[in-house]
Amino acid sequence: MNTLILKNISYGIKVKTKKKKVYKELFSNVSLEVKSGEMLAIIGTSGSGKTSLLNIIGGRVASGTISGQVLYNEKKRDPSSYIKQVAYVEQDDVLFPELTVRENMVYSAKLNLSNKKYNENEIMDIVDKYIESMRLGRVRKSLIGSAVKRGVSGGERKRTAVAAKLIKDPKIVLLDEPTTGLDSKTAESVINTIQKFTKSKNVITISTIHQPSATTFKLFDKVLVLAPGGVVYFGSVSKCLNYFSSLGFKCPEYENPTDYFIKLITANTDSEQQQKTDLERIKMLKEHWLQLSEDYIKEISQNRKESSSVNETEEQTVEEDESLCEQNHVSNVEDSHKPWFRKVFEAGKLYCGSIMSEDEENMVECGEPGNTWGKELHILTDRAWLRQRRDRSLIYSYLFISIAAMFGLGFTFFNPGENLEKIQNTTGLIFLITLYLLFLVALPLLLILDAEKKLMKRERSFKLYRVSTFLFALTFAILPILLLTNFIMLTGVYFLAKFQPVFTKYLIYMLIYMSTIICSFSFAVAAISVFPTFQLASVISPLILSVFGIFGGNLINPKNIPPALSWIRFISYFYYSYTAAIKNEFGGMKFNCSNITGQVCYTTGEQVIDAYGDDIMHILV
Ligand SMILES: Nc1ncnc2c1ncn2[C@@H]1O[C@H](COP(=O)(O)OP(=O)(O)O)[C@@H](O)[C@H]1O
Ligand SMILES: [Mg+2]
């Protein structure tokens, strides 16, 4: 039997006003107790802090100030073992629309269940068992779908999301508004399925819920009614109506009880007078409950002392517990004061969020996820490839722009000309190819990488995998598409624009540009990682790439760049790529100067290279 107890939990956040940040307490003195096999509903007005409370219980709060205690099995939670026992189903679930119900479950199972403990067949058996128990058998091979592409129904999608989280065999299940957006019958069926799971697996289930029907509401054992600022009721669902009746608030016969409770804790802003009476009522309800809950907390502590005196062998633990009861631990998990570079470096670590440990900054590393590094990479690469195969928009769009660029550049430079014209045209073409491989490879990637970053952050908040494996899997899924589509473009341009027909030159040309593509990919990954928002990344990246282009060697001769700025070209991969391609193409080239009189004529390609600057010669040497 597991128990989860919250004692006098308060939570506050910093809210930005016009001038400064002010501290705002979302709720205070929240106390509750749930045992294995029980379902607790948290209801309350929007913005009262239901999700925040659920995050505190799940150890997922990243900012704000928390005070009070969360005790699991009467002890302070141990971050690494606690997190493993919690399944958290978020309001907006992450399922892959392009994968089927079963595929979504399989990847979730593989990431959640360590390959050190389960083999492939065991994992598949577990998945199939969960599909049956969540009544998803009929749609196991159907795509999840999205707004654009129709897939399974809303209820089935929600049940899949819940099943994908439950597969880790948790002891505590937290659900954030699992029925929002579903009709009342579907909502009831979702809660019914969760209730069966709670009873059969004997887990603690806590769910925030928005306007449940009376039938759905009755499926819960306990309810916590959260008004703005604090609790007005916590206890069994069956006694809830009587409690409010005893205070003079009797639920009308045909009214849905939860609708009625919400009305009781909402201040009507239509008229000032009405608002005043409503606020007074809410205040009275909170104060009344607070008085009762003080007795209730004493009761919990009392019970625990009594039970410990019966069981003398647990004396040591009890002593430890008592100290926990007495101290009122205050934790501050505000991390906005940290400099940005610390946040960037720390993003790579796995944190348990605020779990109220005594760690100085209250962010505790949770240790590594369950799978081995290699297995994790295999699962993530496999998943990334399957997603690319199902949704080919990335492949097709890169193929399209590559072929368009191939014909565009190839035919524009179809006639390279002679001597000076040839030098001008070839340098221009090499400049354009390099420019293309910077801008048109890196910039369209930003949007895709931003979505991947969000996915990674979310999945890593559940401690599913390491950053390194995700990054490698992402590279394996996207980079080959870039290399392959641009290989076609580069080959086409090479022959259409009549570059030197020497195989080694073609090979070096290809290697130079393949490296450029890898640099552009890395640049996009770095930009999305470093900049906090996509908007910022998409504004600053072209700016940086433009600077790379300006100092790249074609627009201004490196010899003429002022010394104070000349270093910039050395951090620009455009410069290396462009000058290497120039050197490759002009190397060994011969010009016929016999017909040219009265103007400068280069007889060899080396002279052309020389004219571009001293350091060009040394790049490939
Ligand atoms: N870490 C945070 N930083 C800033 N504001 C927050 C934070 N957590 C919650 N809030 C704000 O607190 C309020 C309550 O949030 P939430 O817990 O999501 O309420 P509910 O789930 O009941 O609608 C919201 O206005 C939200 O914007
Ligand atoms: Mg919420």
From TrEMBL:
Compartment(s) where it occurs, according to its Swiss-Prot or TrEMBL record: Membrane
Acidic residues compositional bias, start-end: 312-324
Transmembrane intervals: 393-414, 426-449, 470-495, 507-529, 536-556
Signal peptide as annotated in the record: none
Stretches assigned to the ABC transporter domain: 4-253
Principal location class: membrane
Any one GO cellular component localisation term in the record: membrane
Keyword list, A-Z: ATP-binding, Membrane, Nucleotide-binding, Transmembrane, Transmembrane helix, Transport
Region: Disordered, residue numbers: 303-325
GO molecular function ontology, one term from the record: ATP binding
InterPro entries: AAA+_ATPase (IPR003593), ABC2_TM (IPR013525), ABC_transporter-like_ATP-bd (IPR003439), ABCG_transporters (IPR050352), P-loop_NTPase (IPR027417)
Topology versus the membrane: Multi-pass membrane protein
PANTHER family the UniProt entry points to: ABC TRANSPORTER G FAMILY MEMBER 28
Protein name (database record): ABC transporter domain-containing protein
Protein source organism: Furculomyces boomerangus
